[in-house]
Amino acid sequence: AQEKKIFTIQGPYPIIRRLLRARGWVERKVPGTGRQLEQQQEKEEEQRDDDPNGIHDLMSYLVRDRLPNFIWTNFLEATDRQLLQQDNVVNHYSRVDAFTTKEGLCLSLQNLPWIEQADPNSFFPRCYRLGNMDEREAFIDDFRLTAARSLLKLALEEAGNVPVRTEQVPNSAKGAGTDPKHSTARQGCPLYPELVEEALEVCKQHLSVLQHQDIDRNTPSPCRTCIDWDHFLQEYYRVAHEGAELVLTRQQRKQCQNLLERLAEQLPQLDMEGKLNVWILKPGAESQGRGKAGGSGEHTEAPFLGGVPLLLCSPGIVCTTRLEEVLQLAWTCTAPSVHVGRWVVQKYVERLLTIFGTKFDIRQWFVVTDWKPLTVWFYQDCYLRFCSWPFSLRHLERARHLCNVSVQKWYQTSPDQDPRVPPDKIWSNKQFQEYLAQMGQADAWHQVLVPGMKAAILNALRSARDRVGFRKGSFELYGADFLVGEDLQPWLLEINSCPTMSPSSAVTRQLCANVQRDTLRLVLDRKENPTCSIGAFELIYKE
């Protein structure tokens, strides 16, 4: 106690407790929610402890009235304010929801071009807060324009006047109503060049806007009324999702090719957005695919709306391909106590890298040890999380599209899953690098993926730093989630405060233990010995 080595832990962190005790620190135990869980963990620890006489309990009793010098907790909000003092070390900053919630990250990255010479569209799938009227209108425009671009892509699948026939969708588009007065084709019947002509005209006008657009991005969207959008979208749905044929002229095919090439110069996401116009609706204030960090993640069978599962909405993430369903879901899924503004809609990365036909994402850790000056440490080890069912854009179930462990633990591996997918659905980054080497991409990890992840993390932090509550002496460990595109570019999905340290596999058991060990080295040992080992942490930014 004389050496200011009193710590408090709130939450299931037996490794942190053991490492601090090994350094000679004494725990001040705090009664409260979850204490029974901690006591069970302490019992298990003490069976392995070199102090069978209970000296740690005695020392804890002796410091019961002392303020801790080091606090490690699940959430800053859960910490007794009386425990906080000016010079103690805490593992959280306040107001980090500016980048650790989907809504906060969406808003912060919208402001990035004003702060840095960086375009969020180059690393963050475009995202809209549905509770904001301007953003809701911008999303509607975006959905329509994406449908027009997608139609051009579909038109290019066959040359000349040969009809383009698309695969029929079994579960997301059937049963949608059509307006008889606009119906020019039933499912499977051909749609003629007029539809392509409309898409070409819309995209030409959009290109003109993009070529003259300034940084404030407030230029009105083209063609809000230039075509009958309800009719156009219904016809697009038939082509993209219901198996209708698309007929176009050779001249139109050349126009499509030329226009898409010019749009690609203006739109960083043109390639990854695919051609089925899939969007993902998320609770804006939540994270980890299952509600707020620390939520139960319990899975329940869901009702359907127009063929798309509602997933009971709380918590829930929903993929959909229809504009009316996004807007309806946002309102249907809003409980009386939750404002619709807490929902965001984001473009789904359709052209993503899969491993053995299965979607995966990357959980990447980093630590911020200071905000003034901003100081960021990147952890050089990370892990991949696989889905339980094979990837398909024609089937939008959670088991195929949400990689979070808290989601996938409720699903059994599909019988048609490739047997090479690991049974525990986890890989280390070392295993991923070996896979990339087998695919002829041995340099991709260090030359494309890691630099891309570092840049995305730094841009997210810079965009939010003016809103974060700075506290000298504190630090925070974060978990960023990335998808990998077909071109191996990483796409930032979200950043989690308080990333889980509960291992779900042999890989995460080792990695979670290592990152906790190295975090303490970084924030405690390095203060006394600046040359000490900090394990796999690498300083990537200090202003």
UniProtKB/TrEMBL annotation:
Transmembrane segments: none
One GO MF term attached to the UniProt entry: ATP binding
Protein name (database record): TTLL3 monoglycylase
GO biological process: cilium assembly; cilium movement
Parts forming coiled coils: 246-273
Biased composition (Basic and acidic residues): 40-54
Reaction(s) catalysed by this chain's protein: L-glutamyl-[protein] + glycine + ATP = glycyl-L-glutamyl-[protein] + ADP + phosphate + H(+)
Family matches, as InterPro entries: ATP_grasp_subdomain_1, TTL/TTLL_fam, TTLL_monoglycylase
Subcellular location(s) per record: Cytoplasm, Cytoskeleton, Flagellum axoneme
Region: Disordered, residue numbers: 31-54
GO CC field: axoneme; microtubule cytoskeleton
Gene assigned in the entry: Ttll3_1
Keywords: ATP-binding, Cell projection, Cilium, Coiled coil, Cytoplasm, Cytoskeleton, Flagellum, Ligase, Nucleotide-binding
Keyword Nucleotide-binding: yes
